[in-house]
Amino acid sequence: MVINQEIHKAATASNGIIRFYDLRDWSECVQEKIEIQKGCGKITKMHWTADGSILTVACSNGYFLGFLTIIPSLCSSYDVYAGLLSSLTEVSVVDCSKNNNVIAKIDLEIEPSFLQMGP
Fold this sequence. Notes:
Residues 115-119 have low confidence and may be disordered. The protein is built from no helices and 12 strands. The chain has 2 domains: 2-68, no CATH class; 75-107, no CATH class. It is mainly beta.
């Protein structure tokens, strides 16, 4: 089990499944579960980055896995269109006037960098 106070979550590992829990009410975040392939072996250690954005997992068969648990928010809009970062290397363009219909997906050559502004 690992806990991250920054994002108020706990992660537990059992039988090749990582489950996440909200520390505010201890409810399971059912949609966020991660299943590890059996060939990786048993999960032996987990570690979260301080900001909770990446969960790393070590397995008994030598696998070392990293999971992005928080995708940074990046968006822009013009008229009825919005461009949203949908993964670290993809931007989706949606038409907000038509029930947020995705009209295009654009692959990025590199991951965008993010600056965090201080107070």
